[in-house]
């Protein structure tokens, strides 16, 4: 069970109108948590242990195919809930498989939000039964078809990771955060052409055909090896 001590709510930067779920959600959290903090950016890595639960506002975000790497890494070590979500911008299966505790949609009724929070506080999940069942069956099917790989295959991904340069890892990490080439160039103080060169090299080393495949590769093999975004 999650100890009712502190919760952090990550809001959407400069969102002009808060969802109607905000007042009700905060009222519920105030009743169960002694500390509720709300900000449009996650706390510094060193301060994240101060919070027992994280709620992430996904309004305006499209995480249907790709979840930001910093949230994936956070969900590995802390209970994370996505809320204020749009049904066509979220893939519940991806959230479930990546250790998220649940999702609340922008049209959920207050009583459903309350029920879901109580379930999560009691260390349960809050996803649709259909999604949980389908995901469970899919995992079972994958396990049943599993055949042990050779040592060469098992070591191929760590080898690919070790072959990447520090700069290539930095470029990949920013790419997985959703940054475009120009933003990556500005962040790393390099040219757009140099970013393209690093990406081309990373594509070859990771056997990725495009940016989405490279981002998925990074989220799978690099998230736990890179620092959380400040």
UniProtKB/TrEMBL annotation:
Pfam families: GerE (PF00196), VpsT-like_REC (PF21155)
InterPro entries xref list: CsgD-like_REC, Sig_transdc_resp-reg_C-effctor, Tscrpt_reg_LuxR_C, WH-like_DNA-bd_sf
Residue ranges occupied by any HTH luxR-type domain in the UniProt entry: 157-222
Organism: Pseudoalteromonas haloplanktis
Keyword DNA-binding: yes
Protein name: LuxR C-terminal-related transcriptional regulator
PANTHER family given in the database record: DNA-BINDING TRANSCRIPTIONAL ACTIVATOR DEVR_DOSR (PTHR44688:SF16)
Keyword presence, Transcription: yes
Signal peptide interval: none
Keywords, alphabetical: DNA-binding, Transcription, Transcription regulation
């Amino acid at each position: 069970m999650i100890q009712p001590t502190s919760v952090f709510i990550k809001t959407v930067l400069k969102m002009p109108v808060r969802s109607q779920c905000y007042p009700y959600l905060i009222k519920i959290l105030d009743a169960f948590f002694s500390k509720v903090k709300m900000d449009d950016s996650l706390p510094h890595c060193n301060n994240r242990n101060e919070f027992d639960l994280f709620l992430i506002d996904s309004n305006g975000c499209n995480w249907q195919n790709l979840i930001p790497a910093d949230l994936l890494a956070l969900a590995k070590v802390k209970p994370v809930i996505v809320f204020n979500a749009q049904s066509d911008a979220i893939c519940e299966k991806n959230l479930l498989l990546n250790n998220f505790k649940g999702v609340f949609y922008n049209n959920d009724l207050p009583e459903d939000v309350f029920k879901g929070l109580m379930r999560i506080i009691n260390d349960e999940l809050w996803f649709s039964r259909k999604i949980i069942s389908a995901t469970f069956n899919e995992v079972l099917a994958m396990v049943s078809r599993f055949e042990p790989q050779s040592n060469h295959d098992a070591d191929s991904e760590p080898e690919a990771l070790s072959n990447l340069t520090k700069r290539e890892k930095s470029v990949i990490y920013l790419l997985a955060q959703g940054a475009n080439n120009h933003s990556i160039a500005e962040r790393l103080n390099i040219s757009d052409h140099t970013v393209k060169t690093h990406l081309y090299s990373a594509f070859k080393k990771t056997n990725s055909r495009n940016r989405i495949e490279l981002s998925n590769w990074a989220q799978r093999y690099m998230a736990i090896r890179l620092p959380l975004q400040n």
